[in-house]
## 1
Amino acid sequence: MTELLVKNAHVIDPLSGINGETMDIAIRDGKIVEEVSAAADVIDARGMLTMPGGIDSHTHICGTKVNFGRYMSPEDMRAGRTPRRGPMHATSGYSVPTTYGNSYRYSVMGYTTLLEGAMAPLEARHTHEEFAYTPLQDTMANTLFDGNWSIMEAIRDGDVKRVAAIIAWMLTAVKGFAVKLTNPGGTEAWQWGKNVSCIRDPVPYFEVTPAEIIRSAIEANELLHLPHSVHLHCNNLGTPGNYTCTLGSMGLVPDLNPKRQTLYATHVQFHAYGGSGWKDFSSKSEPIANLVNMRPQIVMDMGQVMFGRTTTMTADGPMEFNLYRLHHEKWSNHDVELETGSGIIPVIYRRKNLVNSIMWAIGLELALLTKSPWQCLLTTDNPNGAPFVKYPEIIGLLMSRRYRDAEFAKVHPDTGSRVPLPAIDREMDWYEIAVMTRAGQARALGIQDLGKGHLAPGADADVAIYPIRIDEVDPSAEFQKVIDGFSRTEYTIKRGRVVARRGECVVHGSNATIWVRPKVSENYDMGKDPDFVEKFDRYYTVRMSNYPVQENYLSRSRCIETETEL
Amino acid sequence: MIVKDAVCPFCGCLCDDIEVEVEVESGRVVGVTNACDLGATKFLGGERLKTPIRREGKTWKEISYDEAIRYAAEMLLDAERPLLYGWSGTHGEAQCVGVHMAELVRGVIDNTSSVCHGPSVLAIQEVGHPGCTLGVVKNRADVVIYWGSNPIDAHPRHLSRYTCYAEGFFLENSFRDRKVIVVDVRKTRTANIADEFVMVRPGGDYAVLSALRAIVRGKTDTIPPTVAGVTRDQLIRVADLCLNAKFGAVYFGLGLTMIPGKNKNVRNAIELVTELNRHTKFTISAMRGHYNVYGSNEVNTWMTGYPFAIDFSRGIAFYNPGETTAVDILARKECDAALIVGSDPAAHFPRKCIEHLAEIPVVQLDPYPNATTAFCSVQIPVAVTGVDAEGTAYRMDGVPIRTKKVVSSDYLSDEDVLTRMYVLMQEALKR
């Protein structure tokens, strides 16, 4: 039995309804408990800001495309090197760090749970291998269904239950956590070098539309009672005028689940563009935020852009090729048979570039114009908008109008006429930041019942203690203190152990992977469905028996079994 | 007993449809179905070393695993500039231990790509890599180009599982509907089945690629009557085939990487493919040799940031092919101890490197005696991944597959041996 007592913590824990109380947190064997014995180790938090461990609900950290981002970018690897030190292994990389690099840097910022944003089912084993080398966070993987042949055929046949059955088989086989749609239909079209322009374009050969894919996936997701909703990367990312497509996609979504949203729209900054071309490119954050304000069934994340060099990587292959044709940097693409695709290019976001400046403003506007912080979560779509190490600066910008104005003065001079940002006075408070960086993520992902994102007795003892005294710091004026505080915890506690202390990771750690197994009746077991089996036999290049990821790839397996309507 | 869907641990095709017949009484493989000759031979095996051996003067002495592992751990700890080389013929879990060991002793870890597709990696680091999984090609490609590669001899089932003879969803008659182009300096067996065979003068690949790029960009009038022995007419024909393809795939081999120009040839080929993507869909991929050479690149990359040639001598991971590659470390006589796993450098390295290997302590993990055995101080026999050990391997297109253990044996796996070595080394450094 190991016991730990965190004394005099200044706690913000939105899911428990705690907003700034000084209290003690008792921990036994990795869980929060009511009290511990006198023998417990004691940490005196001395009134420091204490919150549940951070959760990133959309980040690219592990798997085929992430690793290819490293593979093709020795220049990025050289841009962030640390030697082996104590229990810490050597790390490399700035925008796409090595797995240890990701894990240590997130840990130092107080993050304890990460959702990999896109895993191709055929290559799932790779994602899980890298998870095992991301030792200081619990991990889970969005699983890609945007171009899945069997699913598109079931949709064409109008059989939503079959769609659900295929999702159930796949998630179980690949140890996935949630249903991800990246440019639905577009990734299949891209295997012919084509794309779909918005939700009404039919996918070549399969003759289903992105709208049908989105709607069917949502219905299937709810039939399976999955913890998370469908996680959507809308069609038409990154193009001027795409906000109408985003509004159209959001308009498809009914309110089907009382516990959480019905759709999670990711990195919406990249989908909130006005204009008919790059010349009249503008922000359309207002109509998007207005719609989300009226639709409790939608949660989004920012996808904030920050200036500097980074690497873009997504399953959205056609978008990356378009980006390549703008930037003329190196371009990688990786299509995955019967399922999906991916693309990678390095980019530099520049303050002196008008389009980049507008993108920077849009992410902040989405957060500031969305009334409920539960509906707009803090991300950069790491590393697409910026590496996650920029999160503290984003928190600073959201909390301080003065900091925003100072930064706004440095961006392209024409930005002011294209964006509403200068007119927004809102400054977020500590509680709202806690929602946007952990509590909101836990609720949106449906993992609060697993003990994530809060500090009530029974919760996982994942705790972040920041060296900030919130009653002494005025974030509006002292934004640098906010940035410094969120950059480096005093203590990060994971599963009841101190894992990071003042910028150093102090243990090796071992991650747990959260995945789902929807329980379906025999009739809906796709492993025995002749058509589904034939797809494997004839068109996949991996045998069906070799496809599922064995449980021994998961160093700690946390399986959520769901009762379904199948 | 028949083991179905076994995974072949020979080449980068990583065929996973093999049926292996095991005689229950003897626990031996007696039959192999679906594999090519190369794969079947690997499953059937040969005479392995029974125990670890240590060189004593001009003879070999049988020693215990404990002794052999201790020798290797001490050798690496004592070394000033240890080299940990090979890795392509073992499973990913063992490769991970290897990286940790290299980091611990501040050694250099390199894999066989440095004498194989290393130039391809360099080209990709310059211009990227438009690729795809093999099944995308199988289901869609109507043009397939083998450039400087000869799959009939080197990757015998590539054609039947993934390209020319494989059933394709979008092709009515896969064999008839696909055009095959072979580019090589001589008429290989693969050239015999080509619809278009382009014979390039040795060393002329770069020029031919440039000519094709020019034609694709509409600069046909700049092309001379012949380019490196290839006629202008044929170049135009090949470019048209590519431009009119619905989906084209290029598979290149060492004929492009290990000739003068090296990475620049590959870069030119990638840029041709990128250019073709402005007109239609095209992909390009390397014909990787060892069944898990790509896995070694993947493991090295997520753990250190670089696919091969990683030098930990300054604590951080440092990468500079040409300096930190195995051949260069040996040729400069820097290396003072070598651990070889899952490869046979004495059969492939330049003479100068082998001469230096003969001067320093060398430990090799390999089930069989090979050319490198002659230069070893100690050799440790291990189980063969995919036969009597299991573990992860990455196919040439990046698809990870778990190889199976089809028979049981008393041999330790590479991972077992390396883990024991690593534990000894950690303990020694703590003292």
## 2
Amino acid sequence: MSPTRTLPHVDRVGIQERVDALAKRSIKGEAKREGLLLAISMLDLTTLEGADTPGKVRQLAAKAVTPSPAYPEVPSCAAVCVYPTMVRAACDAVAGSGVHVASVATGFPAGQTPLATRLEEVRLAVADGADEIDMVISRDAYLSGDDARVADEIEQIKDACGDAHLKVILETVELGSYDHIRHASMLAMDAGADFIKTSTGKAAEGATPGVILVMLEAIRDYAQRTGRIVGMKPAGGVSTSKAALGVLVLVKETLGDAWLTPDLLRIGASSVLNDLLAQYIKTETGRYGRAEDFSRE
Amino acid sequence: MSETTTAPQGTTTNGREPAAVATPRAPLRWEYSPAPESTDHVRLRERYGLFIDGEFVEPAGGAYAPTINPATEEPLAEVAQAGADDVARAVAAARAAQPAWAALPGLERGKYIFRIARLIQERARELAIVETLDGGKPIKESRDVDIPLAAAHFFYYAGWADKLAYALPGDGVVTPRGVVGQVIPWNFPLLMAAWKLAPALATGNTAVLKPADTTPLTALLLAEILQEAELPAGVVNILPGDGSAGAALVRAEGIDKVAFTGSTAVGRDIQTALAGKDIGLTLELGGKSANIVFEDAALDQAVEGIVQGIFFNQGHVCCAGSRLLVQESVAEQMIERLWTRMQALRIGDPLDKNTDVGAINSAAQLARIGELVGAGVAEGAGLRQVSCALPDRGYWFAPALFTEASPAHRISREEIFGPVLAVTTFRTHAEAIEKANNSPYGLAAGIWTDKGSKAFEVAAQLQAGVVWQNTYNHFDPTAAFGGFKESGFGREGGAAGLRPYVRQGA
């Protein structure tokens, strides 16, 4: 029998009011231009399909390294994020570019496989060259109240990562409430997460502004309590430039400018990249490009 | 915090020697670019007269005074200053118009009021900009709070106009007071005009309204709207002017009811002047409202509520949560959270859409805030004030809080009416209630706890006209608003807001 869980208090109405207020920030001119480039540099450009092939991954990786050949000031994305079987292809494709390779190990997205196979999956992905691992927490353990097992698994997976960075996916929509999201955030950070991440992108709902804000507040409190700085990765649902800039606003006003770096903030997405590029080109030329001006991978 | 901690670097490469590494990003400050609301389409007249009997007219004494933008000290327009003769003329116009207005079926009165509400919505952007120019409040507040709520009040009371018999006690016969004199403050100029006029008109009264001398412009734009709505002449008269015009109005012959929102000192003077007369009176006065944070509150949302409670409209809010009572077990971390949050407040150009805290309304108010803050320091409370660049011109006061504000300190007892919070601690429920009630005022209170039963238990024992639970400074036309003790009497808003405008038991 696990000890009784004490949940922190998060007020849903208050969270919604705060994110509504921050959604009204006006991002114009130079702030928009800078923000779009910043968001691109934070992207974990992702493909997680059963139909992924090395060819598809190579194309995605090329886009991550050079999102816009015509605009060399557009930075590379932070990483490509792929299934473990695609890690090798991804590593070859980004070699030398500084773009990282992240892999969703641990029985993604459900996590309903034995711990031993999840650990082995992590080791294999790291051995193949992944330098970032995106794991899912065991929602079965969390929802049955077994915090100790959730934490223990994260610790073991962190060990299996070696030098690779560990992002811990909470799959927030399955946790039920903001109180639980905040509690699980603390659990993951205490167990050694380098990043906490909202969602797999495979569930009904992903990174809503409210969920992001709750997790950012947890990161801030954790840093105050322990001095350790943990990163944030919203994923799933950030599909427009406006949403991506909204993430930057939430982070800036909750954690401060120090978190506005790809070392501490990632955005897990794929389709948003072309929208960010379209908006960027609009700020540079005053015109929106045609759909066929943007490469599709 | 964030400046002093080193970030772990996500710089491990993927097992291969990089041929070319991305340039390391220099530490970045991502600043919002200025986003000023355009004022291009706002056309203020150079001069505004008095609005009497449906027309803009010259003041009898010929006096005009400039109204200025407190963020720049630039004049915006010349505004007529009403004198005693003008008051008499306006009251006479209202008196003449009253019988016909009261005789209209409620449904017809309601149509006029609906029309006013819709015209406010149509001109919302212009009204918001003028409110911000004239008063110094952030455009996001005038745009999202003041103007929509003003329209909502007219909509709400328009709906009551033909249903008064259901809202009021008695046999279904509703007798209006007659001519009402209304004096409003400078903190929510158009909204306060709406609070006063909408219930008065719905119940068949005619009105003479005096806006505050530092913020007359939106009331005068409202006069234009009344013309456009073809409200019968004399039903509403608007007399800009200083305190002497207000004093003349509340003492004018032929007034049947006075409604005043403003300071407790002026409220006392009005009550004295009306003593022994058959004149209805409602007073909505000052406050020193307590925001009570229990240890089991959602602390981060409580911080937002405290910020909303005291820094909304630069603290120029009669129900501002200006006393923070925080349970001692969480006091230290609450103050640190609050202080951290205060660093993120954006202070400056009120017209910028990203501004959180605008300009102080007037030089006189700035001096008053400075005087009380000085008293707090002298009495030994710990002052913390946000350090930020403030514009060179205009009236500015950076948000501040006092820690260890003892209940005896002036800053804990007197209304500062500025962005200054007095923080004190409590140990038990009983002490929280006692401290919250230990004030000459009793306008509002906030309770922050995750436990519903505790919130209701505490709320029932607070002497405050409004108690917010896990939120603060939320207003709605359907909710009654008003004070206990020296915060005044009478209610505005909701069905209760109709009562002061009718003769009870007539």
